[in-house]
Amino acid sequence: MFTIAALLAASTSNAQLKPVDYKDGEQQLSGFSIVPAKNTKDQPGILILPAWKGIDDHAKESAEELSKLGYFAFVADIYGVGNNPKDNAEAGKQAGFYKENYKAYQKRIQLALEQLVKAGANPNKIVVIGYCFGGTGALEAARGGLAVRGVVSFHGGLKKDATRPSEPMAAKVLVLHGADDPYESQEEITKFQQEMRDCQADWQMVYYANAVHAFTDPYAGDDNSKGAAYNAKAAKRSWEQMLAFLKEVMK
After folding, report:
1. pTM score of the predicted model
2. Of the four listed, 43, 91, 156, 181, which is most buried by Cβ atoms within 10 Å?
3. pLDDT digits (tens, 9 = 90+) for 78-132
4. Using one digit for the tens of pLDDT, what is the confidence trace for 160-208?
5. Concatenated DSSP letters of the chain
6. Where does residue 236 rank: exposed (0-12), middle (13-18), buried (19+ CB within 10 A)?
7. How many Å is the maximal CA-CA distance in the chain?
């Protein structure tokens, strides 16, 4: 079974995640930073946007694995200290707020990007990745014109309000999508793809067979009938697809 945690178990790296406190106005935020486990010439950085329940083990394990590969990484706190959802209902409400108030979401992403740069990442060599709700955030980073080379959405929400304009998009876009994800309708997928064309974006969308929502998350169970479940093959393939994308856009 492929999991990021399994890869970490084989690592001898001494790089560790460190909590980082920062603010959005009066709201305290608390993310996690990690430096590369090996020296890198260009000091590339990856910002990680967690799923709808806030910072979780999956996001932190991703940061640790990226550190092993030579990246600075930062796990963003979107909700803020004291605001992490207690259950799915709260998570849906919290995530829904930021999806609707996308400028507030983009601001929280920008603040996390600043922390990534402050930790040592090259501001000209940054990519944003995100899982589920965080995948939506990765797309919002591109839509908002944030200073990143590219964005990667793992099983993220694709929807954008139809009244929002589609501006030219500089960041390259990679969407990694479960072919059986019940939370994204074909209509939304079609509209997203048209948005990418309208934005003249450099975009890719890859589908994974027998994969539903949350297919990269080893903590999501294995029952596809629930709509969200781990798929080891899709997780491995999508991670490798992301690494190829990073190699390309970080040139």
Report:
1. 0.94
2. 156
3. 999 999 999 999 999 999 999 999 999 999 999 999 999 999 999 999 999 999 9
4. 999 999 999 999 999 999 999 999 999 999 999 999 999 999 999 999 9
5. ---HHHHHHT-------EEEEEEETTEEEEEEEE--SS--SS--EEEEE--TTSS-HHHHHHHHHHHHTT-EEEE--SS-TT---SSHHHHHHHHHHHHHSHHHHHHHHHHHHHHHHHTT--TTSEEEEEETHHHHHHHHHHHTT-S-SEEEEES------TTS------SEEEEEEETT-TTS-HHHHHHHHHHHHHTT--EEEEEETT--BTTT-TTS-S-GGGSB---HHHHHHHHHHHHHHHHHHT-
6. middle
7. 50
Write out the two tokens for 196: 């990418």
Residue type (1 letter), 229: A
The amino acid sitting at 233 is K
